[in-house]
């Protein structure tokens, strides 16, 4: 028998998503600061994609496995999803604190692998956590609230980078022979270490989990009575079975994600090097400008995240999602040809609208069509559709940049813009999934959070 989910107030939905602020602050540092740090420590342009292999590999392995395990977990004291994102947040905090002390390139790369394990442990159960708590009529609102915190976390991370560079960078000259990390960059990572664990704790303490239904409890008990070897095999079997039974909508979405996430990884890796090429900035100036770009698009995400909810209800999630992909492609295609350091920020408003849609709408659509008892594993599979394109990008794009794009960061960004347009065209093929429970509209009741 299904447990009826009560509609939650604005502040209850707000509190349950606060933890995403810390997770996404960490992600913001990965977007903007990690690749320049690799460059500070001696990495070349064509090495950057492969050095980012940690994200795709850990996401591919960790998220679906943790999702499947959390589906079979229940503790009256700790809940179902909370233990996993608490452990992940703690691991992430330790890595963020250590990252700026990296003495050599291999050490920084190793820390990135551990950081990604922690972030992925926290990320996937969090996606399922929101789906567990909300009725269908509030899923769009819940995931767009998550988008708001995605934007807020990355804004804080990027703002800290260019503000600390301005306040504490002084007259420091950064040349191509630099083999150490600037001291002003340390503070951004220290703030991230605190936010990673503190914001997760806020959501954990403020938001109780819904207990499993009697049927789910029986399944969990049956799973716990299995031998150790059987329990180890179960997550992998769950993933295989879920993929076999995956809705057609998710198969079509995987094609969109291939081009979308390939392009996003190109942007994050090459936006700072692009400014060294297009505007003649040194490494420190290019990092600061990239941080301003990323801050702008994430401020745009904060502004538009919740505004997309009524648009998705009126026009359908698919139309809003398609339009957002085209906007992002147009923004990325225009950036390399704007020579003014202020005007080049304007396209990031369009990029931010796209990012808000990408971080909310697909999750809401998928969450409505997958079984409650398998939501964790399906959210993990959805993440596999993100990290597989990223993995392909890390392996293939180095040779593409070196041999087809003349080792040009400008051409790399244009390449990414074209891939976004292709993603938009493929998204036109998506058929809006129908929810068996209906979607009565979004109702946000008054009252304070729990």
**Structure summary, number of beta strands:** 0
Helical run tally: 17
- The share of residues in extended strands comes to under 5%
What is the global morphology? globular
Radius of gyration: 21 Å
Q: What structural class is derived from the secondary structure elements? A: mainly alpha
Question: Secondary-structure element order, as H and E?
Answer: HHHHHHHHHHHHHHHHH
> What is the first-to-last residue Cα distance?
25 Å
Poorly predicted sequence stretches spanning 5 or more consecutive residues: 171-179, 436-450
The profile of the biggest β sheet is: none
**Averaging pLDDT over every residue, what do you get?**
81
Helix content: over 70%
Short description:
With 450 residues, the chain is mainly α. Helices cover 74% and strands 0% of the residues. The protein has 17 helices and no strands.
Model description:
The protein has 17 helices and no strands. It is mostly helical and 450 residues long. Helix content is 74%, strand content 0%. Helix 2 (19-40) runs antiparallel to helix 12 and helix 12 packs across helix 15.
């Amino acid at each position: 028998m299904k447990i009826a989910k009560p509609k939650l107030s604005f502040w209850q939905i707000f509190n349950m998503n606060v933890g995403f602020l810390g997770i996404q602050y960490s992600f913001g540092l990965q977007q903007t600061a990690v690749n320049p740090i690799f460059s500070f420590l001696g990495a070349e342009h064509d090495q950057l994609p492969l050095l980012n292999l940690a994200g795709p590999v850990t996401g591919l392995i960790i998220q679906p496995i943790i999702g499947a395990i959390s589906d079979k977990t229940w503790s009256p004291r700790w809940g179902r999803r909370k233990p996993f994102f608490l452990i992940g947040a703690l691991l992430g905090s330790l890595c963020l604190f250590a990252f700026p002390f990296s003495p050599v390139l291999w050490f920084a790369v190793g820390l990135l692998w551990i950081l990604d394990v922690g972030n992925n442990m926290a990320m996937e159960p969090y996606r399922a956590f929101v789906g567990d708590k909300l009725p269908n009529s509030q899923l769009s609102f819940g995931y767009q609230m998550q988008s708001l915190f995605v934007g807020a976390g990355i804004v804080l991370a990027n703002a800290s980078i260019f503000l600390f560079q301005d306040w504490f960078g002084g007259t420091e000259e950064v040349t191509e022979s630099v083999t150490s990390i600037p001291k002003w960059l340390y503070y951004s990572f220290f703030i991230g270490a605190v936010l990673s664990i503190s914001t997760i704790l806020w959501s954990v303490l403020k938001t109780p989990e819904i207990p499993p239904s009697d049927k789910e409890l029986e399944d969990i008990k049956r799973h716990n009575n299995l031998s150790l070897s059987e329990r180890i095999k179960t997550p992998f079997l769950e993933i295989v079975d879920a993929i076999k039974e995956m809705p057609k909508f998710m198969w079509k979405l995987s094609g969109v994600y291939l081009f979308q996430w390939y392009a996003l990884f190109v942007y994050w890796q090459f936006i700072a090097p692009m400014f060294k090429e297009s505007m003649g900035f040194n490494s420190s100036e290019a990092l600061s400008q990239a941080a301003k770009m990323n801050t702008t698009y994430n401020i745009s995400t904060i502004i538009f995240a919740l505004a997309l909810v009524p648009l998705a209800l009126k026009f359908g999630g698919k139309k809003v999602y398609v339009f957002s992909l085209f906007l992002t492609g147009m923004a990325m295609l225009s950036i390399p040809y704007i020579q003014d350091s202020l005007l080049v920020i304007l396209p990031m408003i369009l990029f931010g609208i796209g990012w808000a849609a990408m971080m909310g709408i697909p999750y809401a659509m998928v969450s409505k069509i997958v079984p409650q008892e398998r939501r964790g594993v399906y959210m993990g599979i959805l993440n596999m559709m993100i990290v597989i394109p990223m993995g392909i990008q890390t392996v293939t794009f180095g040779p593409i940049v070196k041999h087809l794009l003349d080792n040009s960061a400008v051409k790399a960004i244009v390449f990414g813009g074209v891939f976004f347009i292709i993603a938009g065209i493929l998204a036109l093929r998506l058929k809006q999934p129908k929810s068996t429970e209906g979607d009565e509209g979004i109702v946000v009741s008054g009252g304070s959070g729990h």
